Amino acid sequence: MPDFARTPRATVRRKAQRASYARTDVNAILDEAPFCSVGFVEDGRPVVIPINHWRIGDSLYFHGSPASRLLGVLCAGAEVCVTATLVDGWVLARSAARHSTNYRSAVVFGRAREVTDRAAKMAAFAALIERLAPGRWAEVRPPSDSELDSVRMAALPLEEASVKMRAGPPADTEEDHALPVWAGVVPMRLVAGPPVPDDGLDPAIPLPECLKPRNEA
Amino acid sequence: MPDFARTPRATVRRKAQRASYARTDVNAILDEAPFCSVGFVEDGRPVVIPINHWRIGDSLYFHGSPASRLLGVLCAGAEVCVTATLVDGWVLARSAARHSTNYRSAVVFGRAREVTDRAAKMAAFAALIERLAPGRWAEVRPPSDSELDSVRMAALPLEEASVKMRAGPPADTEEDHALPVWAGVVPMRLVAGPPVPDDGLDPAIPLPECLKPRNEA
Fold it and tell me: Which of A60, A164, A190, B106 has the least CB density, counted as fewest CB within 10 Å?
């Protein structure tokens, strides 16, 4: 698939040097972000709701209850804007005004469509569970037909998107470099802690390989 | 200030037992979240942009360049929806369909107003820097008058808001409890790593007390 076109609404207007329209950059942020925020218009006013997402190829997937307002909006094919953001660090400059954040964010515009086919839903469920922990799908009880039917699922084609990011050290003025003030970056990242077994779990069931922490500090 | 009214758009519709309208709950999430996502309507379509925020009393503050589209929207007093989300863990059930996420999210609706008064901007800058690292404000060069004038700032009164969250173990069916599948929660949190000094930093300048990592795994 080609990279994204610089449509008017997807074009980054401020600090264009921090922008990207490369599909690989958009995908990398969507794949790493644990959740996204979906914006839609209701009665002419904006609403933004967080939800977990996952990507299969060139589509972003969402699922939820048939009673969910957000799933209703997605499945109806309303215009949405999906934003996923990763915080990489606090940028501490010598001057207050130059403090900043290192981050990566992806913004996607489009209209989703409902996924109703059971086989497609099953494949998407597998991708969701594998995203959480690769190998987990083979361990869990897969959804039954009635579970598949009772979950609402939507897929948003990745057709209009852009990335904006900041990385690197503070950008103090030349003059401020002489100040006796500590400056640098405090890196931030989302880290998994040791898994906590369910109270009712049979102690004979070991922690599976796929859940052994890989991301601890 | 009283808690929030259950206005139609701020009322959580699904899983109301996971909702809160308590000001202390909304504030706690806004204060912990490193960024938020601001939704607005442009040409009838939704746009969602991430930005850093900070709270002073019953207002949420934002700042940026006068050229920023988002600051323009905020300062113009357009309707916005601000969502801040914290991921607390992956919930791994015995069945695929019961996998979930532990999270806390706050959704705020309203219209911001521009902050133009220099003294108010200076006080808000202090609150922003202190939020990053308590004690930092006393160490950095404060904004000059021209820096204050060249930053656009907006304050959103916290008048209509709600919280939705999930906590706790997986909710497998009674039947699924008999399955030989590991189930539990993988806790997640945003962690600060060791500060990285700016390349140009005088090695005689020590890491200030306020930046010594407090949040490491």
Answer: A190
